[in-house]
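Hi team, as promised in this morning's meeting, here are the two structures we talked about. I've kept the exact order from the run log so nobody has to guess. The first one is mostly here for context; it's the second one we should focus on when we meet again. Sequence first, then the predicted structure tokens.
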Amino acid sequence: MDIRTEIIAVGSELLLGQIANTNAQFLSKELAEIGLNVYYHTVVGDNPARLESAIKIAKERSNIIIFTGGLGPTKDDLTKETISKSLGKTLVFDHDALESIEDYFARTKRTMSENNKKQALVIEGSTILKNDYGMAPGMALETDKTIYMLLPGPPSEMRPMFKNYGRKYFQNQLGIQDKIVSRVLRYFGIGESQLETDIQDLIDGQTNPTVAPLAADGEVTLRLTAKHTDEKTAQKLLDEVERKINARVGDFFYGYNETTLINEVKAQLVKKKKTIAAAESLTGGMFSELVTSLEGASQVFNGSIISYTNAVKKQILHIQEETLAAYGAVSEQCAKEMAEQVRKLLNSDIGISFTGAAGPEPHEGQPVGTVFIGIADKDQTNVYALNLAGSRTGIRTRTAKYGCHYLVKLLNEIE
């Protein structure tokens, strides 16, 4: 069966830009994990005529149509009414849903208005998808060789409903036997276009597993997805393609799935029983914020000095006046001293420093995007020079991430 899936999000607030359509993003990801490809995303306002038109178009090009939103009690919640009319079906009360709604109002000692009963209406003959976190149930039915699924709009209700009931409905209805196993590989320090070029033949020749690149916030991820009736075999397929990929771009690989660079830094510091301190100039505390956002950061982070001016660099960090006079604050020499001094002053195993010209104007004659990152331990100091492009905020953000990247690489080398 050639399965073509469409997601129709209903709600004028989406078209007005008041909220983002995160439901479609979530559902596309979930559906991909069970092997269902989404061909179209549609957004339509709370208007019956326009929703009818969207349904008509979807019927002609898709055989799975999933709706989110418009199942509530108000007059503009017209999704199920419009769909039932389009399908020539009637709406009937689901007694379990109605009882659940009545129980909710009784427990909260609130008066239940008549329009709340509307949430218990479902399309006749549909399979009910229980709403564990709200009132309006979801529903699914197959008619004229097309599957329709209606889900609530609030993500807090829709997501658990689909995970707990919607996925199972599709797997049972379509006889999906394959286990879908995914793994995300995370890379930093290489652009999306370069990474794709380096593994283009693997992407072009993909069948099972599939390889999907995605770039965001200066990072690149590869989502590997394998199908097999046996999950262990699917994992082995992922292992094999991962080995091929990292044989080429492994120098930029730093972790799996939902991890982040700073999570990897903290994990390595904990593992190696090391502490760190930071001296920040152009980043202005961004690195320190990344570290202290993590639970248990005090195990590894002793503190930081934000030395934004040369006066603070001299008076607090004790950077030599000769260094600043001869080379300037935006220099390899200054970054080296900053890292070494903050390590000593804050009694840490490792010191890291950030200095540079973030813009919008050159600084001390150095072009915008000139960055130096120093990392010092008791044995040596390494300084990394970068030339970054982009906005002031982008340069500062990527500088902090590059610091994490270099830390991960160095910490991995420590026994």
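And here is the second protein, the one for discussion:
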Amino acid sequence: MAEMAEPVAIQTNNTAYLNSYWFSGIEPMSDAQMRARVLELKSYGIKYQLADIGVLLSSGDSRNGTLPADGYSELGRWIKVSRETDPSQKIVAAVNDGKRTIWLDGGKIGNPSFGNAVYNGNLRTLADKLVNRGVPYGGALYMADGIQLDIEGFMRDDPVLKATAQSVRSVLDDAAVYSIACPYDPALWSDSYIGEMAGIFNMLNPMMYDQLGWGSPVYSPETYRQFWETTIVRYAHAIVKSSRPGTRLNPTMPAYEKKTADDGTVYHDPAIENILYAAQGLKRARDRLSLDRAGDPRLNPNGVHGAGIFWWSKFIMRGPDPHDPDAHDYAQDRSWWMEEWMRQP
């Protein structure tokens, strides 16, 4: 368990991506261990727990868009213990689908199984169960506070994704947290499309990592800071021009080991993509947005609602990461999170 942070915090509307093992029972936990994890989340200003409960099935049959129940067999108990420990934290069930696109004849196309009537119906039923009807534990039903969609790979201003998002929205009320993991690239999501999605969701979580390699303009600490500044300003302005200008913007900061592709390209390096440089870029964006509020007072006075951490299980790891070739130590990330983000006015 990581060292407990001092209880001095200003920025506390934050998100954390939690390990799927916590909710499937692969990593068994007692109630006391669950309580300790919830208190640790609280100590780092986490309000929204993004609970990874598995990968949606992509198939050509009636199971298309369903989620294997063993991925969230411990979710009901987690919700019970979490609410007893810190009722201010929101449990958001995060569901994943990495097969929005497929390869066919050497090219990438939209997966025909994604977003069809069967898929959307099953996903809508799942959202209704998780948020409205509840999952069982100990003879009672426990409801999540919302649902997050993480649908990859992205397609240009994707109308099928938008239709799927609207389908799920139809079973959620405005009190539910409805969020989505978003791409940074304007070639994938234009400003107008961000506005359309902000009108459906009430939280957008841009994934601000894995930006290195293959000719990317991000290759140094300074270019990573610029990437953060530009992207957050773009998203913030697109949101306020939407039908839901109060949609929450929670960009995600990276805390995990170096990643190298099969061709040898390093696409994530914690020496460049880390919480320190992300927070510095976010500070620049917030400063710009503060000036921009003179022209559009609907912009969030804080610039963003909060920030996120991907992955939480790495962020809280003690000692050098045995899976990182450079033996990265996340103690520095925890310090940066507190000093460069959480305690910033």
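Starting points for discussion:
The first strand starts at residue 14 and ends at 18.
Residues 236 and 299 are 7 Å apart (CA to CA).
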